[in-house]
Design a protein that fits this description.
Number of helices: 25
Bound molecules: phosphoenolpyruvate, magnesium ion
CATH architecture of the largest domain: Alpha-Beta Barrel
Helix content: 40-55%
Number of strands: 16
Shape: globular
Number of domains: 3
CATH class of the largest domain: Alpha Beta
Structural class: alpha/beta
Length: 592
């Protein structure tokens, strides 16, 4: 039977595919298809892993001290029994043979099937056995990962080896939550859409999905409980609806929409290399937001005239204690700079903390581990200033990359005037250290992100110390309205049109322009066509967004005349319902 699940639309378009249910903790398990010739090899890997885990468990049992409680031996027996049970290993082989999943993926797919069966059991004792199955699978996965390290010829990351193996069936990912760090893995994967139970419109997870330009729905609460492994899904990323097992008529209607949006995308793509100039001749700079140096090529391809935001924290995720040192960071920044072929690259110093912890964590874990509101805690520049050695190391790495092209440094979440001095001192010391070491670097502009209302209110004072500002509307909205951007329960109150938000934006843009300083917007609003004309009317001439949004925004810029809306700006800003006031003003424009 067809059911619908509602959530928050975060990335547009329609995806149609089979559901792959993945537990949050296993999103980073490698997901790739194996060729026909590799199927038996993959099954052999699974068998070897099972034998190794069996030997490990037998060993543990043998070494139990005589005084150990009897339950321990019984538990190991249960694990051994599960390990040899057909419903685990037999069915896992089925996923490999029929779907051509790699062993790790097949195992986690089967775990999801079993976990659900356990959840539905009446008997509480049997229900609790789910934890045992999970532990056994965990051991098997660990064994598979270790053994694939020993055999480096095996693909170890989520790559798509052959679309043919998916046949007609594209795949969509369904999870309770996907941590931002896991999204990086997801970036290289085979999924064509995704659905999560938690998350808000501008949660970092949603942002990464958006940057991949694949349809996504977050905050769909019950999705991972209602959807079953292998169900057919339609993800309507425009309406925020997921249709589970749609009827043939509904499916056909969505296939039609999918073709329409592919055509629209192809049409917009033709604008790629057209300069963004308004009807009244105002040049507008359209820049890209990237997460990894490898994204730079795509940004260039999409027609970006530079990188307006390189979220460097993604280099630091999934690393445990092994954080990237100066040389490794330098290489990453240099690669992005070289890939941009002389166009400017704005590198933001790490914005860790809040929903981007260094370790992989789900939203729930985050709230538990980091207090009730990590967004108000040790995040971004606060974190960097609390780790001065790491901060200087990052500044040195960025400065060194400036020898290869135009680089700008951007400091996230500046809020205190008192933060300016230590930032400038750290930069001066980093330069001195490079001079002492005889390392080359070039002139680098220093910018601040305006994403805390305090910075917007005191913008003129902050701008005495910075060459430019970039407005992070995602956080500016969160902090102005006191709405956690990752919390789906208050997502309906997260309102970019709020008059207070618009006022702060206008004030920041106007002040920077009057002081002759650069100003850009790099939050989601910059990539949303609903705001293009309004931001232009406020005086904004630099927008930074996901590369996938550049063509659509460019089309809007090409059709805008900044003079026409200027006369209506005060009225829109003074309105209690600015969105309606703007539509009226734009309609009036066409009536004349
Ligand atoms: C923002 O806050 O708008 C922004 C661009 O930064 P991030 O989304 O990485 O917090
Ligand atoms: Mg931010």
């Amino acid at each position: 039977m067809s059911i619908q699940v509602f959530g928050i639309p975060v990335s547009r378009g329609v995806a149609i595919g089979r559901a792959v249910l993945v537990a949050s903790s296993r999103v980073d398990v490698a997901h790739y298809f194996v060729g026909v010739e590799r199927v038996e090899h993959e099954i052999a890997r699974l068998r070897d892993a099972r034998d190794a885990v069996a030997a490990e468990l037998e060993g543990l049992k043998r070494e139990l001290p005589p005084e150990a409680p009897h339950e321990l031996a019984a538990l190991l027996d249960v694990h051994l029994m599960l390990l040899h049970d057909e419903s685990l290993t037999g069915a896992t082989k089925g996923w490999i043979r029929e779907r051509h999943y790699n062993a790790e993926w097949a195992l986690s797919a089967q775990l999801e099937v079993l976990a659900r069966q356990f959840d539905e059991m009446e008997d509480a004792y049997l229900r609790e056995r789910k934890a045992d199955v999970e532990q056994v699978v965990e051991r098997l996965l660990r064994e598979l990962v270790t053994s694939s390290r020993a055999t480096p010829s095996l693909p170890t990351q989520a790559t798509q080896t052959a679309r043919d193996f998916a046949g007609e069936d594209p795949l969509v990912l369904v999870a309770n939550d996907v941590a931002p760090a896991d999204m990086l893995q997801f970036k290289r994967s085979v999924f064509t859409g995704f659905v999560t139970d938690v998350g808000g419109r501008t949660s970092h997870t949603a942002i990464v999905a958006h940057s991949m330009d694949i349809p996504a729905v977050v905050g769909a609460r019950e999705a991972s409980r209602l959807i079953r492994q292998d169900d057919w899904l339609v993800i309507d990323g425009d309406a925020g609806v997921v249709i589970v097992n749609p009827s043939p008529i509904v499916l056909e209607e969505y296939r039609f929409r999918q073709r329409q949006s592919d055509l629209e995308r192809a049409r917009l793509n033709r604008l790629r290399h057209t300069p963004a100039i308004t009807l009244d001749g105002q040049p507008v700079e359209l820049l890209a937001n990237i997460e990894l140096p490898g994204d730079a090529a795509g940004a260039l391809e999409a027609g970006a005239v530079g990188v307006g935001l390189f979220r460097s924290e993604f280099l630091f995720m999934n690393r445990g204690d092994d954080l990237p040192g100066e040389d490794e960071q330098f290489e990453a920044y240099r690669d992005a700079v070289v890939a941009m072929k002389g166009l400017p690259v704005t590198i933001r110093t790490v914005d860790v903390g809040a929903d981007k912890p260094l370790e992989r964590m789900s939203q729930q874990e985050l709230r538990h581990e980091h207090g009730l509101n990590p967004a108000l805690g040790l995040r971004a520049i606060r974190w960097s200033l609390s780790e001065p050695g790491m901060f200087r190391q990052q500044l040195r790495a960025i400065l060194r990359a400036s020898a290869y092209g135009k680089v700008r440094i951007l400091i996230p979440m500046v809020a205190q005037l008192g933060e300016v001095k230590p930032i400038l001192e750290a930069l001066a010391r980093a330069r001195q250290q490079l001079d002492d070491a005889g390392r080359a670097y070039d002139r680098v502009e220093l910018g601040a992100m305006v994403e805390v209302p305090a910075a917007a209110v005191l913008i003129a004072r902050f701008l005495r110390h910075f060459d430019f500002v970039s407005i992070g509307t995602n956080d500016l909205i969160q902090y102005t309205l006191a709405i956690d951007r990752a919390d789906e329960s208050v997502a309906h109150l997260y309102d970019p049109w709020h008059p207070a938000v618009l006022q702060l934006l206008h004030q920041t843009i106007a002040c920077a322009n009057s002081m002759g300083r650069g100003v850009s917007v790099c939050g989601e609003m910059a990539g949303d066509t609903a705001f293009t004309e309004l931001l232009l009317a406020m005086g904004l001439r630099s927008f930074s967004m996901h590369p996938a949004r550049i063509s659509a925004i460019k089309q809007r810029v090409l059709r805008s005349d900044t003079r026409q809306l200027a006369g209506h700006l005060e009225q829109v800003l003074a309105s209690d319902t600015p969105a309606q006031a703007l539509s009226r003003a734009l309609l009036g424009r066409f009536a004349h």
